[in-house]
Design brief:
The protein folds into 3 domains: 96 residues, OB fold (Dihydrolipoamide Acetyltransferase, E2P); 261 residues, no CATH class; 38 residues, no CATH class. The protein has 14 helices and 9 strands. By secondary structure, it is of the alpha+beta class. The strands form 2 sheets. The chain has a 7-stranded mixed beta sheet, with no helix packed on it. A two-stranded antiparallel ribbon has the order 8-9.
């Protein structure tokens, strides 16, 4: 953690030194790494872009807003434009993606220099083309987001349905997805008569490959590291400590990119897992009268929701009071769709299985229909975020968790006191 702070300091000082006069016109060229769609423009991320300034080239990542046109991942483009810094001392959110500058241009001002995609991008685009060719536009977009984390093609109204219902996390490739893939591969390799360590390395390599297809998002990296630690501990007969695994993953991520701390995705990913680690057993004991499977499912969903609540309130301005119910209903179905699509896509390298895509298409249409019918927007509470009260909230949550070695009643009383203080701060 100390190393991460040191790296953060030097990175920020370096980025601050990269000053370019904002009134100048520059020639910029680079490769399109990601595309996002908005009502009046598209937003593209240029990686390793070159900026011509004062007879020299400056390397940097840029966020470019393009009007009146479209671009594809892998496109190499060039254009003249004014540019400005994408971050300040008060807002470094762009830096978690390595973006230093931003620019705005029109598609008519862009020079197309070619298109070249790497291996991971080819695999990603293969999945996209396969899904969109065999499924309806909306279902294909949802399936593509479910598999790769790319939500750019989902209509905004459909995104809102998933957000308001509290199940939009299915579009963030994280522990849910990685654990499904690892469990599936573990089942397959069980019958192969080789040493466990070789099986573990095979699964880890596949998980890294899958994370690469998903553009190595922070949540997927976190899940891959934690799953790798679990597999290696099992291979060498060591005890797996999930909390230490989470901290190792966080330390590695912040050392590589300390600005990732400002990523909402990273905050939600790590907080939800931390919540499950320290709260799930406590909630499960409180729900012991329910059947084990149902009690466990509710405990996991409730733990993640409770721990991420302040971030949801602060960043999105609302939270759903029925998200646990939606998760209990839809996550089992999403799990089935996810695994079915992965298997079908792999088999489609050899033989096309249009019928399976049709079934997945209808299942996603069914989910969308039920979400629209249930109007989840009616069950959200809008908020303006939390100030100092969020610290009392988290003190209450930690007091109630397995980190505190007290009996259930005492923990509940202490937690209640902190929650009441938090509520009084809001009032």
């Amino acid at each position: 953690f100390a190393l991460s702070i040191t790296v953060y300091y030097f990175y920020f000082r370096y980025y601050q030194s990269l000053y370019l006069p904002s009134e100048n016109i520059y020639y910029v060229y680079g490769k399109v790494k990601a595309v996002a769609y908005y009502d009046n423009c598209i937003s593209v991320k240029l990686t390793n872009a070159k900026i011509e300034y004062d007879y020299k080239l400056i390397n940097a990542n840029l966020q470019v807003y393009v009007k009146n046109g479209d671009l594809k991942i892998g496109d190499y483009i060039g254009f003249y434009s004014k540019i400005e810094k994408a971050f300040s001392t008060k807002d470094v959110s762009f830096l978690n993606d390595g973006i230093i500058y931003k620019a705005t241009t029109d598609i008519t001002q862009i020079e197309f220099l070619g298109n070249k995609v790497n291996f991971f991008e080819k695999c990603n685009l293969y999945i996209k083309d396969l899904l969109f060719a065999n499924m309806s536009a909306e279902s294909g977009a949802v399936a593509y987001a479910m598999l790769t984390g790319t939500t750019s093609y989902i209509p905004e109204a459909t995104k809102d349905l998933y957000r308001f219902s509290g199940i939009a996390h299915i579009f963030s490739v994280s522990g849910l997805h990685i654990s499904f893939v690892a469990h599936f591969l573990n089942k397959i390799t069980k019958r192969i008569n080789v040493k466990k360590i070789y099986k573990s390395f095979f699964i880890i390599i596949f998980l890294i490959f899958y994370s690469g297809i998903c553009n190595f998002t922070l949540s997927s990296i976190r899940a891959v590291i934690m799953c790798s630690v679990l597999l290696l501990c099992g291979s060498f007969g060591e005890k797996y400590d999930i909390l230490n695994s989470l901290l190792i993953s966080l330390s590695f991520t912040l050392f590589v990119n300390p600005f990732a701390l400002y990523s909402v995705g990273l905050q939600l990913s790590y907080l939800s897992v931390f919540g499950i680690i320290v709260l799930a057993n406590t909630f499960k004991r409180a729900l012991k009268k329910l059947p084990d499977k149902i009690g466990e499912a509710i405990s996991v969903s409730l733990s993640a929701s409770v721990m991420t609540l302040p971030v949801m309130m602060e960043v999105f301005g609302y939270f759903s009071i029925v998200s646990v119910i939606y998760n209990l209903i839809f996550i089992p179905l999403v799990t089935f769709i996810f695994l079915t699509l992965i298997i079908t896509i792999i088999i489609s390298l050899l033989i096309k299985l249009k019928f399976i895509f049709y079934l997945a298409d209808e299942a996603i249409k069914g989910i969308n229909y039920v979400l629209k019918l249930s109007t989840p927007e009616k069950y959200i509470i809008k908020t303006s975020g939390l100030g100092i009260e969020k610290y009392f909230y988290y003190l209450g949550i930690v007091s109630f968790s397995d980190l505190i070695n007290l009996n259930y009643t005492k923990k509940a009383i202490i937690a209640l006191i902190f929650i009441v203080i938090a509520l009084l701060c809001i009032v």
